[in-house]
Amino acid sequence: MGRRLRPASRNAKEMKDNRKPLIGMTLTQLEQVVKEGGMPRFVAKQLAQWLYEKRVTDFSQMANISKKNQQWLSTYYTVGRTSPAVSLKSEDGTVKYMFDFGEGKKIESVYIPDRDRATLCVSSQAGCRMNCYFCMTGKQGFKGNLTPAQIMDQILSIPPEPAKGIEPLTPLTNVVFMGMGEPLDNMQSLLPVLEIMTAPWGMAWSPKRITVSTVGKLTELKELLDKTQVHIAVSVHSADAAQRQSMMPAQRAYPIASVMKLLSAYDFSHQRRLSLEYIMWRNVNDDLAHANLLASLIGDIECRVNLIRFHAIPGVELVPSSEEKMIIFRNYLNSKGIICTIRASRGEDIMAACGMLAGKGKGRADL
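The structure assignment produced for this chain is given below.
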């Protein structure tokens, strides 16, 4: 049995301040933790069950782990769960949560109920390096990558346990990595989280319940496609390369034509789904000429197009397309055999809609 590690040079306060969170650790990492603590290897699976299935918040709740081992764990580690600092509820039932992870990392997650379904829009970074012109997150700059623990904290802590007398929220059925940040710009955290969510020792979710959105970072996108079976959503917004580059600097490094060429090598005709995200701006990208460019870009690739209503943000001189223009655009793509839908806008009144997250916890409706 391994030796219990007890750093002699640190006092109790220092050890407490430097404890590492266990959520966000894979089974392999948990096995290393229990080895350090002199515990049998099977305790790692017990820990995983308590963390990811039972979602406990304290070591004392881990009934089949001895008091001695609970004490050792609490000396060097924390469970890692935190409560959102702010929560705001929209008139349409959408709830925005703000987490303050310290070191300038204030991020937002969005819970979207829809009858018997509930989707969580998760953040992967504080801020974003992509600097898209039309996105509030990009305008705040990049504050840092989130750790696997900080991403898992959002997934495990939302919806929260209801207060006494409060009707509980619908449990999560889907998670989309479409919050703050570019997920593929933080692969070192994204991949462990996806493993935890889909592994039988973790949350045991089907990868079909998970969607990862990206501007199209090519090397990382290929790695994601090869290592996982999650759904993919690509932010296109314009099939005109020059126009896309003027609004999305990532186009220079990751041309959308190259992204689509990469995607064409993968099969999206069965359970795995590819979505193309297309925000529509009046007299910018909403006419039939742009619809035709998009259809040509798609070619024979099996996918669906989500048309997204633009939500105005400060300092951006763009105007949403009219409902009529969006319907004409949708119908044109449908006539070409491309599945196209207009996404319902949710949470705009609390600054929780697409492109509006800024890590400030602001809105106009209190929870």
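Interim note for the steering committee: The chain has two domains: 12-78, 86-350. The mean pLDDT is 90.
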